[in-house]
Amino acid sequence: MAVIVTFQYVALAGNVIAFQDYQPYLGVERSLWVGLENFEILVDGDPEFLRALRNTLIITALQTVFVFPAPIILALVLNSLVSNRVRQTVQSILYLPHFLSWVIVVAVFQQVLGGAGLVNNFLRARGWEPIDIIGNSDAFFALITSQVIWKDTGWATILFLAVLAGIDKSLYEASAVDGATRWRQTWHITLPGLRPIIILLFILKLGDSLTVGFEQLLLQQDAVGLGVAQVLDTYVYNNGVVGGYWGVAAAVGLAKGAVGLVLVLVANKAAHAFGEEGVYRA
Predict the structure, then answer these.
(1) Residue 168, SS3?
(2) Distance (Å, rounded) from C-alpha 170 to C-alpha 191?
(3) Are 181 and 102 in contact (CB under 8 A)?
């Protein structure tokens, strides 16, 4: 609780520098106030900011379409395994990548898909042309999406498997007696049982939708360039911590948080309209 209060709530006071020409050696008290001047970058069409926003939205869309459903599908597959021993073994193997840092994950992908990696060495040994994947900007979005799926899908199945374990087994037995196929059971029993947790996690995901993997992208910017690897989080880092434009970086970060808050509130209201609990009820 102390950690959460200190780094999540007390730290909110630092957003005041979004309205200042903040200088670290002067501090918040003596830095000049500039009002909304730092927020002008959001509306004046700054090319670097617009590029970061475009990349963020593309990655967010890809992760919503491919990453978010992946643990649901995997949980359904694991739940269909008859043998508990096989299921537990597969689960343990799939959980492991979650505990690897992004430094290690990126290194693993480079060792496998890089210019001197396992795949290209295999192709060269057979006289075939190597495939440029790691340094190919056209394949970058597909690459980082596959990295997220490989790293986090297994771990994300825990919640869905817990919900699946709580579904009344007599429902499946009754439907089987009535002649329902496995697909019908999944459609009419399993997915309705998962619906509340899916909606809850989706709403929470919206609040974090513009945060698309700072460390993962920062580690790979040199390989493909800022054209495709610059997102809002790395933009804040490159302009704030590295470039010294602390006020502008804080303004972008504050705006990103405000957008996430609005998305959560709207999605939660929409969930209520469809009869779901959502994250909370007012």
Answers:
(1) coil
(2) 16
(3) no
CB 53 within 8 A of CB 266: no
**Residue 53 and residue 212 in contact, taking contact as beta carbons nearer than 8 Å:** no
Distance CA 196, CA 96 (A): 27
Nearest to 161 by CA among 188, 192, 197: 197
Mean pLDDT to the nearest integer, 52-70: 92
Residues 98, 151 contacting (CB under 8 angstroms): yes
pLDDT tens readout for residues 6-36: 988 998 888 899 999 888 888 888 888 988 8
Secondary structure (3-state) at 190: helix
Element (H, E) at 79: helix 70-79
**Residues whose CB is less than 8 angstroms from the CB of residue 226 and which lie 6 or more positions away in sequence, other chains included:** 48, 51
d(CA 48, CA 236): 11
Residue type, 189: I
Regarding pTM above 0.85, the answer is yes
Residue pair 34/16 in contact by the 8 Å Cβ criterion = no
DSSP conformation class of 18: G
